[in-house]
Amino acid sequence: MLDLTVFVPRLKQVIAWTEYLMQHFTYPPDRQNHGAIFRQINPVINGQTLHSSDWGYTTWNLDVYDLANFEQALRIALKQREVEAIKQDFYSADFQKLGRILYFETQLTTHDGAAIAESNCFVDESDVPPIDTWFYLDRNVRKGARSRNNLFCWIPKQFEAVMQEAISVEIMDSYHWLNEAGPLTHQQIVAAMSA
Q1: Which of 14, 21, 111, 129 lies in disulfide reach of 135, CB 3.0 to 4.6 Å?
Q2: CA-CA-CA-CA torsion sign (179, 182, 184, 186)
Q3: What CA dihedral angle connects 119, 19, 41 and 135, to 10 degrees?
Q4: Domain layout of the chain by residue ranges
Q5: Per-position pLDDT tens, the chain of length 195
Q6: Cβ–Cβ under 8 Å, residues 100 and 179
């Protein structure tokens, strides 16, 4: 169950953050690395950066299957966004015009390269969306007989199509648009965002 008292302020913050990044950072000249703009934060965890990139191909330097790495990276990213000089109320009350909420099941990664290739490097080699889009981690969600950990990400409208390309080839079904997979939860979020 999502804690909307935490979820909604973080969603507002990530919308403001991604809008800020889109205004203040430019794409690589070849525009092939769609994720570069949303990888401005690269947390250091236990003396190691979370990821490294080579010509847009981003790979994790840490264990992508260790949920603690996601938790620590998200905590660092949230803190860094707080101190950056951005206007926190930058999001629109009608936030759905700006993008969509996606959740990613963290333990379902393939490393097969299909999603990173189809999204022109928007997701990384482990199928993970870029860290500057992360805003909430929901642990131990029951789905059938298994527990899942869902990482919530904000995908700006301009990047929905490349994210959809990743979704179309990712074989583990680890990506879900919240408005499609959880319409009632999405309606609650829409109401809370407008309040």
Answers
A1: 14
A2: negative
A3: -80
A4: 4-194
A5: 789 999 999 999 999 899 889 888 776 655 567 778 899 999 999 999 999 988 678 999 999 999 999 999 999 999 998 866 555 556 666 888 999 999 999 987 766 778 988 898 899 999 999 999 999 999 866 565 456 799 999 999 999 999 999 999 988 889 999 999 999 999 999 999 988
A6: yes
Where helices occur in 25-175 by DSSP H, the ranges are 67-83, 114-118, 160-169
**Joined tokens for residue 56:** 């847009």
Tokens linked to 7: 């979820």
What local confidence, expressed as pLDDT, does residue 28 receive?
60
Task: Note whether 38 and 21 are within 8 A (CB).
Answer: yes
List the one residue out of 158, 161, 162, 149 whose CA is nearest residue 115. 162
All residues at 6 or more sequence positions from 86 whose CB lies less than 8 Å from its CB, including other chains: 16, 17, 20
User: What's residue 100's pLDDT?
Assistant: 97
The amino acid occupying position 160 is E
What tokens appear for 183 in the block? 């319409």
Residue 127: name the closest of 179, 160, 173 by CA.
Answer: 173
Strand, helix or coil for residue 161:
helix
CA gap 7, 176 in Å, rounded: 17
Structure tokens at 60: 């994790």
Residue 58 has which token pair? 């981003």
